[in-house]
Amino acid sequence: MADSAADRGSAGQDADPGSGHGTPDPRRWRALAVCLVAGFMTLLDVSIVNVALPSIKEGLHTPESDLQWVLSGYALAFGLFLIPAGRLGDARGRRAVFMAGLTLFTLASAACGAAQSSLWLVIARLVQGLAGGMVSPQISALIQQMFQGRERGRAFGMFGTVVGISTAVGPLLGGLLIQAAGADEGWRWVFYVNLPLGLVCLLLARRLLPDTPSAGPVRLRDLDPLGVLLLGTGVLALLLPFVQSRQWPGNDKWLLLILAVALLVAFVGWEARCGRRGTQPVVDLRLFKVRSYWLGCLLILLYFAGFTSIFFITTLYLQSGLHYTALQAGLAITPFALGSAVAASPGGRLVGRFGRPLVVVGLAAVAIGLGATALAVHLVPGRGAGWAMAAPLLFAGLGSGLVIAPNQTLTLSEVPVATAGSAGGTLQTGQRVGSAIGIAAVGAVFFAQVGGDGWSDAYDHGLVVSVAFVVGALLVALADVGGGRRGRRRTRHASPPAAAS
Question: Could you list the residue range(s) of the whole structural domain that residue 248 is in?
Fold first, then answer.
């Protein structure tokens, strides 16, 4: 799921020196290695932190709501800054923005590791997410700039492999770090591991990454700061009642949902106004006139809300409920990530032949696998649950590999080339916002059931909500399949008169 927010105007990028016209840059493969390590870092921090949550809870006496913000805050900040950062890199220079984002990410990682309170950690994670959102779109844009033809496809394939590996090894690497450094302070090394990688990447980026010859001054309004603010505060108002459900007694907190709707409506109105005035909105609403695009965006938002929350509640259940070590918990949830990584490549090849029905099969497999996981926890209670859930999580992961990359291909298939970058960035933003919403909603249900020996019930209830999000995505996929078939039938019925004339 390579972030493509900065791919905007790729035709223009091809005109850059070093983009493939003329003599290719001899340093391009080494520069790609720097980009891949940076991408690995930012994406690793999505999954590696999950196994550290129980240790963070003990070490900082972190309330449940702050644990949710450690994950959802990172995802939200990451997603909100993808598109503006892509534009900033195009305008001011991708190497400069890449290095600024990587510097901020490394410093924020140090701040996370040194946190002395849960508030400190949450704020540092927000900054870390914002920095990750600065780095990620520069990677795909630099690949566009440095490579051409088959080399470009190979480079993007390598980036896709890194994405899969970072997701798969995150829980396991986090468990190993905590095991080696100790449960009390080991969680800090989940963040400190970024420091040597970040420093080496910065030194090499300065030497190896190319300049952006078209870079120049950029106006603040071109980054649509008001649009980012309206979207961010709208999603924040939507998340708060769920994340703070136990900390804020009474029903007044649910009034924030009305505020959330008002802010999101204002966001849509502002984005439409930007489009009419010819300025660059953070979300190009014209894209949503393409049926396959808006359905694909809705599908992936719901899916990310479902599948990212699985890691959150599974690690908490295994470590806090069943007293697994961080390493044991990381090993227990690795089958899902491995299954996803294994199926992603065949899914990318098969989507051209089968289309959206392939995504339907994948979503159905995820829903069945998660349902079987809940059943396994019932049939094999106690510490054997980790072994019992391995097979159904592997099955769900195989289904996941048939969803993410194929859905991206199908969602962008009918988008005009001129708006491909904006479309890809919006799709990625939807993934991150979906992750934040899912963690908030599933976490609220999970923590409401925890108490005494209620960890198993809490896990069941949380999985039900995760499956509900996945089923919602499945219904969207089925609607797309049905609508596509009806469209083809109408085309066939209309074609004979056209031929006769």
Answer: 225-279
Q: Burial of 452 by CB count in 10 Å (0-12 exposed, 13-18 middle, 19+ buried)?
A: exposed
- Other Cβ atoms less than 10 A from the Cβ of 492: the count is 9
Residue 310 and residue 202 share a domain: no
In angstroms, the CA 17 to CA 222 distance is: 25
243 in the same domain as 167: no
Are residues 303 and 389 both part of a single domain? yes
Residue among 177, 300, 151, 244 at smallest CA distance from 443: 244
- State which of 210, 237, 262 marks the end of a domain: 210
Give the whole-angstrom CA distance, residue 415 versus residue 421: 10
121 and 258 in one domain? no
Rounded Cα gap, residues 293 and 280, in angstroms:
19
pLDDT tens-digit profile of 86-123? 778 877 788 888 999 999 999 999 999 999 999 999 99
Nearest CA-CA partner of 416 in 297, 276, 298, 290: 290
Q: Render 33-98 in DSSP notation, one character per residue.
A: HHHHHHHHHHHHHHHTTGGGHHHHHHHHT--HHHHHHHHHHHHHHHHHHHHHHHHHHHHH-HHHHH
Q: Torsion angle of alpha carbons 278, 280, 284, 287, nearest 10°?
A: 60
Name, in order, each residue with C-beta under 8 angstroms of 376's C-beta and a sequence gap of 6 or more.
385, 388, 389, 391, 392
The two three-digit tokens of residue 364, written as one number? 């159905």
Structural contact between residues 396 and 337, judged by C-beta atoms closer than 8 angstroms: no
| Residue of 150, 146, 167 whose CA lies nearest to 35 | 146
214 band by pLDDT with thresholds 50, 70 and 90: low
Mean pLDDT of 4-24: 43
- The number of residues in the chain equals 501
Residue 12 pLDDT > 70, yes or no?
no
The total domain count for the chain is: 3
Q: Which two tokens stand for residue 392?
A: 């159904």
Taking the CA of residue 370 as centre, how many other CA atoms within 13 Å lie in the half-sphere pointing to its CB?
29
The vertex-243 CA angle with 228 and 266, nearest 5°, equals 30
Q: Considering the domain boundaries, does residue 496 fall inside one?
A: no
Whose CA is closest to 225, among 167, 173, 282, 304? 282
Asked if 425 and 8 touch (Cβ cutoff 8 Å), the reply is yes
Distance CA 204, CA 224 (A): 32
Using an 8 Å Cβ cutoff, are 232 and 80 in contact? yes
Q: Are both 408 and 466 inside the same structural domain?
A: yes
For residue 468, count CB atoms less than 10 angstroms from its CB and return exposed for 0-12, middle for 13-18, buried for 19 or more. middle
* 174, two tokens: 């986090």
CB 228 within 8 A of CB 86: no
